[in-house]
Amino acid sequence: NYYIAECEIKKTDNIDFKTQGSVKLFEIGIYDKCKEIIISDEVINDNFYGVGVNCMPMAMMEESMAQGYTYTHWEEERRRIKLVRPAVARMWFQPDWFIKDKESYYNLDFDYETPKMKCFLSYVQAFKEAGTEIELDYGWKNAPFIQEWYEIPGVREKGCSAPRDIEQHGKACAKFLDDLINGMGYTNIKYLT
């Protein structure tokens, strides 16, 4: 498939061209003047892995919804993911999104039905549907409700601490990945940092 569209694009223009259905250029954020757009399945460089994206999967979390983000916005974002089909997505993840409390964390009893986990899993699913591999950035931040027992004592910046119990952190991460990949079928999760 090889398509060329010649156009001058303004933010208010609704210009359609066919790829595998109709695509409005403004939906993928192209607002500048554009003389030629080429969409091709032809491989130009066989060493090129593909375009990647960085994702902070928090759009449908309470804080974002309170600022006006809606499910209509999410559907638009999901359409863009399917349109762009990134090769890989680096996704931020916080373990406190599935942690109920200290006891459940140490018993590896996680809650994947929390609003934050549902939001995260919506992104994982959208990337799976787009054929995108995920590099999971597991555990940069942590919420106030786990900081007392989760983070290293005396850390200057609360919420950015490495975990106090590295062995348990590893066990929790392994269980989490097993649940998502083997239990839920998110085999597009390929990498971990």
Structure description:
- The chain has 193 residues and is α/β, with parallel strands linked by helices.
- The chain has 6 helices and 8 strands, in the order βββββααβααβααβ.
Short note summarizing the structure:
It is built from six helices and eight strands. The chain is α/β, with parallel strands linked by helices. The chain has a four-stranded parallel beta sheet, with helices on one face. A two-stranded antiparallel ribbon has the order 1-4.
Describe the secondary structure blueprint for this structure:
Layout: E1 2-5, E2 16-18, E3 22-24, E4 37-40, E5 52-55, H1 62-66, H2 71-84, E6 88-93, H3 102-106, H4 115-129, E7 133-138, H5 144-150, H6 166-183, E8 189-192
Parallel strand pairs: 5-6, 6-7, 7-8
Antiparallel strand pairs: 1-4, 2-3
The low-pLDDT segments are 1-23
In terms of DSSP E residues, the strand content is 15-25%
Gap between N and C termini: 36 Å
How many strands, which pairing sense, and closed or not: the largest β-sheet?
A: 4 strands, parallel
Structural class, please?
alpha/beta
